[in-house]
């Protein structure tokens, strides 16, 4: 993934936002994001989740909470 200065131009973030409400668990969400972005590193996915969570915290708190749970549950795991 190329680094962009504008976080709203992040395709991984866009995928996370579209799938966050439909995924049942953080594992399901990671699987769906990996299918859509097979070359994305886990670190990129987690960073996109945190960025989306911060962006949504005021407007969509439920979705922001789901993204927070996803990012935190995947942040410490070693598998990439």
Provide a descriptive summary of the structure in words:
This protein is mainly alpha-helical and 80 residues long. The protein has one domain (9-75). The chain has helices spanning 11-19, 26-36, 42-56, 61-75. The longest helix is centred in the middle third of the chain and has 15 residues, at 42-56.
Concise summary:
Helix content is 62%, strand content 0%.
| Secondary structure tally, helices | 4
- Average of the residue pLDDT scores: 85
User: Which word captures the global form?
Assistant: globular
Low-confidence stretches: none
- Main sheet overview: none
The number of distinct β-strands equals 0
Keywords:
80 residues, mainly alpha, 0% strand, globular
Write the layout of secondary structure elements.
Blueprint: H1 11-19, H2 26-36, H3 42-56, H4 61-75
Helix pairs in contact: 1-2, 1-3, 2-4, 3-4
């Amino acid at each position: 993934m190329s680094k962009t200065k504008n976080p709203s131009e992040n395709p991984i973030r866009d995928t996370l936002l579209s799938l966050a409400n439909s995924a049942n668990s953080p594992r399901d969400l990671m699987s769906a994001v990996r299918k859509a972005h097979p070359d994305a590193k886990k670190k990129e996915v987690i960073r996109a989740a945190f960025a989306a969570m911060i962006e949504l915290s005021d407007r969509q708190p439920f979705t922001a909470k789901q993204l927070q749970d996803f990012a935190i549950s995947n942040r410490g795991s070693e598998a990439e």
